Model the fold of this input.
Amino acid sequence: MSRSFEHAYQGLVYAVRTQRNMRIHVTAAVVVLVVGLLVGVSALELVALILAIMFVLVTELLNTAMEFAVDLVTEEYHPLAKLAKDVAAGAVLVSSIGAVLVGYLVLASRLGPPTLHVIETVRRSPASLTLIALGLVVLLVLLVKAITHAPSAFAGGMPSGHAAVAFGGWVAVSFTAARGPHGGIVSLIALVMALLVCQSRVEGGIHSVYQVVAGAVLGGLVSVAVFQLL
Done:
């Protein structure tokens, strides 16, 4: 029995010592638990936080073990080996998103006024809205590429990520510059730059016109939604 605990302890220490993501998860867990105790969460809420944290740590440990097992079987590139690692990493991502949601639901009400203050600060900050808009654009592009089985997440496929970010940026610049005296000129310059990005993707043979137009529409609509709704 003591030897089993020793092996488990060594495995845990090795994972924390060698895996960057594991260290990030552990640090985040400590911060969340300390904040939870400081704001006085209930026993049930503390259980929810602990279970969410443990779920993330377990999936990260399994992901690490999966990587070691795959590397042990083959050191050469194999599509199935890559798929096994990607699926294991996806499990970590899902558990992390779940933990973030649990943490927000438990702690948001305790942090009431500061949370509302942060939201209001973001709403008044064009830079923050721009980052949110472009972040959503990138996530949606990756999601659509995954659904449409694009050959790569960053080059080629449907839609054009560069066009989406370029037109998302153009919309963000236009909303921000509209408050100044030369908003029209700034917006026009940003639009020309976005069009040049789109042209380069087509001329380079990376995307078709249809893919570039789809990316531009996606990026523009998402940015408009962010600046209008937030």
